[in-house]
Amino acid sequence: MFQTDGWKVLMDELRNNALQINSVEATKDNEELNFRKGQLNILAFVLNMESTVEHYMNEGSNDSV
After folding, report:
1. What is the C-alpha separation between 36 and 20, in angstroms, rounded?
2. Cα radius of gyration rounded to whole Å, the chain
3. How many structural domains is the chain composed of?
4. How many other β-carbons are positioned within 10 Å of the β-carbon of residue 34?
5. How far is Cα 14 from Cα 23, in angstroms, rounded to an integer?
6. pLDDT, tens digit, 9 for 90 and up, residues 5-33
7. Domain of 31?
8. Per-residue pLDDT reduced to its tens digit, 33-52
9. Which of 6, 9, 37, 62 is closest to 45 using CA atoms?
10. What angle do CA 45, 20, 37 make, to 5 degrees?
């Protein structure tokens, strides 16, 4: 899945979105700030998914040695 063109396009889009969401200049109040924090948390989870899966796959293969 991580090697497909679609995944790479999605990652590029999410990185661009994260840069825009991370700007607090347009944030009006605490509620919107907390909403943006939640958005960034989800984006970070998805953006780090590939490395997280690879880590656990490597860790699992080391358990059998």
Report:
1. 10
2. 16
3. 1
4. 11
5. 14
6. 999 999 999 999 988 888 888 789 999 99
7. 5-63
8. 999 999 999 999 999 999 99
9. 37
10. 45
